[in-house]
Design goal:
By secondary structure, the protein is α/β, with parallel strands linked by helices. The protein has a single domain, classed as Rossmann fold. It has helices at about 20, 45-60, 70-80, 105-115, 140-145, 230-235, 235-250, and strands spanning about 5-10, 35-40, 65-70, 90-95, 120, 145, 150-155, 160, 175, 180-185, 190, 195-200, 210-215, 220-225. The strands form 3 sheets. Strands 1-3-2-4-5-14-13-12-8-9 form a 10-stranded mixed β-sheet, with helices on both faces. The protein is globular and about 45 Å long. The N and C termini lie far apart (about 40 Å).
Length: about 250
């Protein structure tokens, strides 16, 4: 499949009212954030989520979007080109490419972020680029800050805010139940990561980290395993949190 990159120039509408959106205050002295959304794959409505994310975030903070929306082969071709992330302040991954076996390709992605490029990783990004990578060195989970081998059944997730003082969680409820959910199991949270929220589908009997931030070399990464269903991604709590994550990763919070 030929690589296709589409550019979405969203209206630069800035909403700074915490009462309305509960989004941490953006530093207006900076130019709009240039964000590249890398999306595509199976099992999810990525076409719908592309619209939800780009439009929903741009209603909250000032972002110009570029989009790479491809299958696994097309994504690899696009992300193998020299300088593919140049010109962007942050890369947002919302993809599901679990069968990649090329360790050198994955390492090349991780180096971009360890060198300082901020990232946001959403849901099935945690199941991409590591399941079938040979050897013990797992660059992608190290970049993400967590290692996830599986997920549980579909059920609403009770999300507990464990770091309400963190700027990413500004305005997030003490507890929020997602409309629908697919809770990812986290076997390892890397020492470079700080957990911001935990999720449970069994009334707290067991829980898994579901929102966090990670320092990967020089790069800052915001991650969440929430977001399988459009209904969750459309919720104001979710879009506020992701918007804050983008601001945090790009050092745009006052």
């Amino acid at each position: 499949m030929n690589k296709k990159i589409s550019l979405l120039y969203s209206p630069l509408i800035i909403f700074l009212s915490v009462a309305v959106f509960s989004v941490a205050q953006e530093n207006k002295s900076n130019a709009p954030i240039k964000a590249l959304l890398v999306t595509g794959g199976g099992y999810h409505d990525y076409k719908g989520q592309e619209k939800i994310l780009t439009e929903g975030v741009s209603q909250r903070i000032s972002v110009n979007w570029g989009v790479i929306h491809q299958d696994a082969k097309g994504t690899k071709e696009a992300l193998s080109k020299k300088g593919w992330s140049d010109g962007y302040d942050i890369v947002v991954y919302n993809l599901c490419h679990a069968h990649e076996k090329d360790a050198s390709f994955v390492e090349s992605l991780s180096k971009i972020h360890s060198s300082g490029k901020p990232a946001v990783a959403i849901h099935c990004s945690m199941h991409s680029y590591h399941w079938k990578i040979p050897g013990k060195t797992k660059h992608w989970p190290a970049m993400l800050g967590v290692t996830s081998p599986r997920h549980g059944k579909h059920a609403p997730i009770t999300v507990k805010n464990v770091k309400p003082e963190h700027p990413v969680m500004k305005g997030f409820p003490k507890q929020w139940v997602t409309p629908k959910g697919e809770l990812y199991h986290i076997d390892k949270t890397w020492p470079t990561a700080t957990v911001l929220a935990k999720g449970s589908i069994d009334k707290g009997k067991s829980s898994h980290d579901c929102v966090w931030v990670n320092q990967y070399g020089k790069g800052k990464v915001f991650g969440t395993t929430l977001g399988h269903h459009n209904e969750t991604m459309q919720a104001k709590e979710y879009l506020n949190m992701v918007s804050n994550g983008i601001l945090w990763a790009t050092d745009r919070l006052k």
